[in-house]
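Run log, item B.
One chain of 346 residues. Sequence copied directly from the ordering sheet:
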Amino acid sequence: MALAGPPGGAGWTWRPVARDALLARAFHSCTELRGRFYVVGGLPGGGASEPSGDTVLFDPAAGQAVRGAGDGPRRSHHDAAPVGGRWLCVVGGWDGSRRLATVAALDAERGAWEAWSAAPGSRPPVGLSSHTCTRVSDRELRVAGREGGTRTQRRCGSIFTLRLDPGARTYCYKEEGCRTASRSGHCAALLPTPGPRPGHQLLLFGGCSSPEPEVAGHWSLGKIKEEPPAAPHLTEQLARLVSKGQGARQGPRGLRHHSCSVVGPFAVLFGGETLTRARDTICNDLYIYDTRKSPPLWFHFPCADRGLKRVGHRTCLWNDQLYLVGGFGEDGRTPSPQVCILDLFI
């Protein structure tokens, strides 16, 4: 992996902007909906056997967190996505005793949780945890990653399309024909494809020992209707940052439980734990995957500040800024109550 940037990780940092004990957790979900970050579930500390069932709303404009709707699903290692500008759908995850593939939905208008039902013909996975759910349209998600019960784990991973019907309060899984390597704790990024045949592809990074991303879906130009959040200033800053470094064809090897956010043509990965070391496994490195040219290139920006080490955290893009929420710190047990913003100084 080629290094970029001055020694010690100068050129970027995570700047704290808020601190609240309500946000101290890891392996949660954090989803922007209606200008708020909805933080759901997760583990309150290392060694916790039961995930949290609470919902916390963080207002990034005011820098304040409040407890939201009660009686939410007890989940960790799950994923979530906004639907219809009104619902927050939590998909799968660990409930303290088993992996699930069910869908629970929070109605943001009423502030109440609903248990949606499987539609006739739905073919759900056995169970999901440390998986990813990526919006490909307003009511359609692409689900990929770890699948199996509490005692079984497949050698390969299935890919599912999950269709959501808010009017009927139902969901329907359809297994796709393609498969991936068995992955757990990976990330997914829906990115534009460069070259003579423009379109979009869904790439999976990490979650296994291979440094190579896998394609979990490809769509021709015009098929993807999702409008990613506009972040012109941050996109420009990332372009300037990678212009200072030398790219590499291969990405990080054996990284899992890291974060990933798409910013324009870039996938921005941070933290996680590496499977390549027996000690000091939790990372504080910033990786940028640049799709502007073919083949895409990786840029690695290390950091000397051990206080920035995170695992099981989330990043969320809002108002042209990238936010970091939660996660365990260097010891892999203590959750961070901080909310930070990615600062780039080039």
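Observations after the first pass:
- Residues 55 and 166 are 20 Å apart (CA to CA).
- The radius of gyration is 19 Å.
Flagged for discussion on Thursday.
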